[in-house]
Every structure is written in C-alpha cells, then in structure tokens.
Amino acid sequence: MPGVHAILSASAAHRWLNCNQSALFEKQYEEQGSEYAAEGTFAHEVAEIKLGRALSDAGYWKERPSRRLNKNNEFWSVALEDYIDGYVAEVMEYIASLKEPLVMLEQRLDFSKYVPGGFGTGDVVIVSDGALDVIDLKYGKGVPVSAERNPQLMLYGLGALETYDCLYDIETVRLHIKQPRLDDASSYQISAAELIDWAENEVAPKAELAMKGEGSFEAGEWCRFCKARKDCRARAKANLELTKYEFAPGPQLTDDEIGDILGKASELKRWVEDIEAFALEQAEKNGKKWPGWKLVEGRSNRRYSDEDKIAEILLGENYREEDIFNKKLKGIGDMERLLGKKKFCELLAEQITKPQGKPTLVPENDKRPELGSIASAEKDFKEDK
Ligand code: SF4
C-alpha cells in the first residue's frame, strides 16, 4: 500500500489513537518542512556517527564506522556537538550496565502487523538478557516528552519486538527518551506480553478505523501538533464547551471551581493563540478578509538605523565614549554557544548563579517539586552544593 505509512505515523500515534479521524483529515493541510526538523535530522546523523565510534572504541562493534562528521553543514555548531557528546556518554554508560548487549543504531522498526504500513526508526536498539531497549533522541528544545506509555515509543518497541523476539526470547521492553537540550530523560518499562496486548486490542482496531476515516473526532492535548488545529470544528466545539461552565451558587468562585478553570485555561489559551496565528497568517499572506477585522500596522519602538554612524556623529560632537555606550556581556545562552558547553562549565560554572524562579501554578502531575515541600528543599540543597 504505497504511501500508507505516512497516514498512520508513529509520531502522530498519540493523536490518531485518540482522535481517529485526524489521520485522514490532516492530509488536506500542507506539509510544512521546518528548520527544526532539518536540524533534528542533522543532530541524529551526528549522534549515529559518534555513537558508532564510541561503540567500536569500547569493543561492542568490531568495525569503526568510516562516515565522517560534516562540519560544513549549516546546523553544525560546537554546542550541537556538546549536546550530542552528552547524549552519547549517557547511552554508553547505560550500555555498559547491561549484560552482553547487542547494540544496533538507526534500525528500521516495522510494526505494520498492527498498523497498516507502520514503521519507524529506532535511534538505538539494544538486546540483552531477555530485554529490549529502544532509545529515542529528541533534539528539539520545545517541551519535555515522557516515555511513560508514550505511543510512539511503544510502537517502536513493538517493531523491535517483531524483529528480535523470535531470536532472543524477549520478556521486557524498556523505552527511553533523551532530550539533551532540555537536560531531560525518561524511561518506561513494559512486559512484552502487555505491549502485544495493547497492540492487538487498542492499536490495531483504532488504526483500522483511522485508515477508513471512521471513528471519532476527539479534541484534547494531542491537537497541539495537528495540522488541522487552527480551523478544526471539533476542537473549536470542545473548547467552547469548556467555557460553558456550570457555576455553583454564591457570589464567589469556590476553590474547586478556580482549580477546574485553571485546568481548562491552558488548552483554551492555546486554541485562541492558534486561531489568532492562523487568521493573521491568512490575512498577511493571502489577503484574506475576516468579517469585522482588518490588517493594520502594529505598534513599534524607535531604533537606530546605523549604530556606528550614531557613535561617529556623537564622538565628533565631543560626547564621551563612556556616556554614549553601555557595554554589556553577551547573554548566557549566546556565551554557551560561543564557548561550547564544556568550556563554558570549565571557565564559568562558578560565576553562574540561578535565581529562584517566579512561583508558577502548574498541574499536579508536573515533574517539578511543590514549593515548600521536602522535595523542593532537597532540590534547593542540591543546587546550593
Ligand atoms: S485538531 Fe484535534 S480534534 Fe481536530 S482533527 Fe486534529 S486532533 Fe482531531
């Protein structure tokens, strides 16, 4: 079935498993290749080369890969190499903890037994002692992604199981996500039997519905990366439903009501922002007129057109350098990029302080410890050391 794999991709599995109709519905929207995706592809290439070398240096691989790092690539930077070096070190440390590991990189993982045309690529696949590990590198610096029951990783696990179970009798599948730019990593373990049960009883039936354009339109946090998110009626309906709040009697909101509204607000906000961005883009690019709205020039601040020229004029008028210049060091991010992560830590670690973040309300399942809790005190103690 040519092209089928693109319809039910592993990366969109969270979406089509929850909103079955999204798979076909999304197809009418333009595919937008992004710079971030291209940067991610390059980071994966670098990771594969570096891991291959590390595996051969450590004796896990007989042959050292001959592929060379392309430092002329537009995305190459010292910082990128530093992040990947950190990732490689973590993966190698993990491999060293396993018994007689068999390590494969960039493996095609075919899970088409459950999802028509379904396959993906496992960045690192390890077989050892009745267990299978799949490690997924996510180079983006958007949001931390948890490996806990992550459908994309579970599908990769299924693909790996399909290939290696008959040879190695796998009982346990461990799934890992590494996000070096967010300094985040998470792992999830599931038995092979449970994974297959999920595939047979949940994935396969929903994949069948999704392929036929049947099943439900269901809005939720998975709408975030859906191509239809800007003008999907089901999402709009679900968000407007959120605003039809059933208030308890009395002049003041109750604590439960405020807690509930906070939970709904973030999805509502995101939806409104998506609509605003879509409407603006259409008006700007395609001259679209929205009833009751017009495109105007936004407010802007004055700025110098040529700073050197300004300095020349003022110095020529005998204004003093110290009066007209504000000398400022580059920001931490720029400096880290300039020096590279290692050098930055070596030279400046002791000069960097991290002020306490502004208190923020987040849902209870957020990983950060609650302010004033023992876990929060422990975190402060570790950071102070
Ligand atoms: S925006 Fe949400 S509800 Fe609409 S198709 Fe996409 S995932 Fe489904």
What does this protein structure show overall?
It is a single chain. Among the domains are: 8-212, Alpha-Beta Complex (Lambda Exonuclease, Chain A), CATH 3.90.320; 230-286. The chain has a 5-stranded mixed β-sheet with strand order 1-2-3-4-5. By secondary structure, the chain is of the alpha+beta class. The longest helix has 32 residues, at 255-286. The N and C termini lie far apart (58 Å). It has 14 helices and 5 strands. Helix 6 packs across helix 7 and helix 8 packs antiparallel against helix 9. It is globular, with a radius of gyration of 26 Å. It binds iron/sulfur cluster. The site of iron/sulfur cluster has 14 residues, from helix 3 and helix 8. Residues 15, 19, 22, 25, 217, 219, 222-223, 226, 228-229, 232, 234-235 line the site of iron/sulfur cluster (SF4). InterPro entries: DUF2800, PDDEXK-like_dom_sf. This is DUF2800 domain-containing protein. Keywords: Hydrolase. It comes from Christensenella massiliensis. GO terms for molecular function: hydrolase activity.
Instruction: Give the names of the bound compounds.
Output: iron/sulfur cluster
Number of helices: 14
Mean pLDDT: 89
Helix proportion range: 40-55%
What is the correct CATH architecture of the domain at 8-212?
Alpha-Beta Complex
Write out the strand line-up for the largest beta sheet, numbering strands in chain order: 1-2-3-4-5
Distance between the termini: 58 Å
Order of helices and strands: HHHHHEEEHEEHHHHHHHH
The largest pleated sheet is described as: 5 strands, mixed
- Rg (CA only): 26 Å
Unreliable segments of 5+ consecutive residues: 1-5
Number of strands: 5
Q: So what's the overall shape?
A: globular
Structural category: alpha+beta
The CATH topology name of the domain at 8-212 reads Lambda Exonuclease, Chain A
CATH hierarchy class name of the domain at 8-212:
Alpha Beta
Strand-residue proportion = 5-15%
